[in-house]
Amino acid sequence: STLTLVQIPATTSCNLVSIDGAPFGAEATIDLSEAGRIQGQAPCNQYFADQKTVYPWFEAGPIGATRMACDKLNEETAFFSALSEMTLSEALGDTLILSNPDGSEMVFQAP
């Protein structure tokens, strides 16, 4: 199969495992099943953004989110900050790796 924008298990939301090699201390997901769209659940809020380029490149447009408060807002801020800095995506089986030239990396796993 050819790799395209939606080749990141196409119908699946993936769970965040780690940021820069450190286990992520909250739950967060990403869903790229809709071409041109990034969406998911951050530690507190649902979020959405435009995917402004095609696989394997990754560029999140401005991230919008619902406005619920919870005790994981620090983790959510770290998640959104990391997500906005990613520039490359790589799908390996049911693993999605987002990375950038600075060496930062977010690893997601399909359930």
Quick summary:
The protein is mainly beta and 111 residues long.
If you had to describe this structure to a student in words, what would you say it looks like?
This protein is mainly beta and 111 residues long. Helix content is 12%, strand content 35%. The protein is built from one helix and nine strands. The strands form two sheets. Strands 1, 2, 3, 7, 8 and 9 form a six-stranded antiparallel β-sheet that branches. A three-stranded antiparallel β-sheet has the order 4-5-6, with no helix packed on it. A hairpin with a 2-residue loop joins strand 7 and strand 8 (95-99). The protein is globular, with a radius of gyration of 13 Å. The chain starts with 12 loop residues before the first strand and ends with a strand. Mean pLDDT is 89; it is low at 1-7.
**Series of H and E elements:** EEEEEEHEEE
Output the radius of gyration: 13 Å
Helix content: 10-25%
Profile the largest sheet: 6 strands, antiparallel
Unreliable stretches, pLDDT < 50, 5 or more residues?
1-7
Q: What is the number of E strands?
A: 9
Give the termini separation.
21 Å
Shape: globular
Give the SSE map:
Blueprint (H helix, E strand, L loop, with lengths): L12 E7 L2 E2 L5 E3 L5 E5 L4 E5 L13 E2 L7 H13 L2 E5 L2 E5 L5 E5 L2
Antiparallel strand pairs: 1-2, 1-3, 1-9, 4-5, 5-6, 7-8, 8-9
Any key phrases for this structure?
single chain; 111 residues; mainly beta; six-stranded antiparallel sheet; three-stranded antiparallel sheet; 1 helix; globular; disordered N terminus
